[in-house]
Design a protein that fits this description.
Blueprint (H helix, E strand, L loop, with lengths): L1 E10 L3 H8 L2 H7 L3 E6 L6 E5 L10 E11 L3 E7 L3 E11 L4 E11 L4 H26 L2
Antiparallel strand pairs: 1-7, 2-3, 3-4, 4-5, 5-6, 6-7
């Protein structure tokens, strides 16, 4: 089973601020609660996430190798994360509006072990709320 989620966020901030956050692999990883730790290759931007999923068949963290597979600054970034437990694809589209910025987020998660899809089906909305909160803090503080 594949889990697909699309969410749209609106910000009273310039698109450049939203782009600076969403295009940064560290910012994306920091916002996701199940990412226990991560490393980013500064030269390539690729990141390794260590993800802790509370499901029976995953007793330790899952190593997820992520990389941006499409990047069109300052409007679009698509990343792919692969592991033995699941694969995730995330797409972020930044659009300027009359009052600020719209961010369109699309995620697809394919589980490779029992329980992964069920976990993400129940928790992906919450993870996107985490992403939105972190992004709001960032754009509101101007960092």
């Amino acid at each position: 089973m594949t889990i697909r989620v699309r969410r749209v966020f609106e910000f009273d901030a310039p698109p450049e601020r939203v782009w600076d956050f969403i295009a940064d692999p560290s910012e994306r990883a920091d916002a996701i609660s199940v990412v226990d730790s991560y490393e980013v290759d500064e030269a390539t931007g690729a990141a390794t996430w260590h993800v802790r999923l509370p499901i029976p068949f995953v007793k330790s963290t899952a190593r997820v190798e992520t990389e941006d597979i499409a990047r069109e600054p300052p409007e679009y970034v698509k990343f792919l994360g692969r592991s033995s437990v699941f694969q995730v694809t995330g797409e972020h589209t930044v659009e300027e509006t009359e009052t600020g910025t719209r961010l369109i987020n699309e995620f697809v998660v394919d589980g490779r072990v029992p329980g992964v899809e069920r976990f993400f089906e129940r928790n992906l909305d919450g993870e996107l709320e985490n992403l939105e909160r972190a992004l709001r803090r960032s754009v509101e503080s101007g960092t």
